[in-house]
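Revision sheet: structure tokens.
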Amino acid sequence: MRAVIADLPKHWLKERMNSEIGQWDEMWNGVLHMPPMPNRMHQLFAFRLQSYLWKHWAKPCGGQVNQEVNLTTPEDEAQWTHNYRIPDLVLLTPDRFGIEKNEYMAGAPLVVVEVKSPNDETYDKFPFYAALGVPEVWVFDRTTRVPELYTLGAAAAYEPVPAGPDGWIASPATGVEFRPTETGKVTAQMVGDPASATELPDT
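Predicted:
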């Protein structure tokens, strides 16, 4: 169910900001979006994926994998709290470390990762990420873990990355590839490196 409140009472806003659930709220050009708190399955998958990417991708290339970052545009940086999104994960290569501002990031990470929950706004965020110039968006279904990878096309819109004949979907930007399993998990590995393969979540 979705609800729109034209003018949120100040005491409601204060109560929400002081609650645990408020940490996932987003501001879309001055409009407050209040998604439900990620459940334990969502949080576990995001944490395990972050751990895998840190070990197999970030450390070897000197990159970063950050969780639940306030992501804004350079144009909105002076008042970033009026326009930001919170991906589940963001991947940065060293050439993009300059967007890191501690409380937020202003600019395009290499990859943003969204763990999709029922009736959430995952795909509604795509135009924001495209305008920012994020090269890739990865989407994982919270329940099935089915992966969807998208690359930014010439028309400033995301195009899905097709699976190869062997079922792997490879990220051009990172060299990580994913394949869903029959047991409701997803296998991640570095392209062509079976020794790096791990089923996620791994517990």
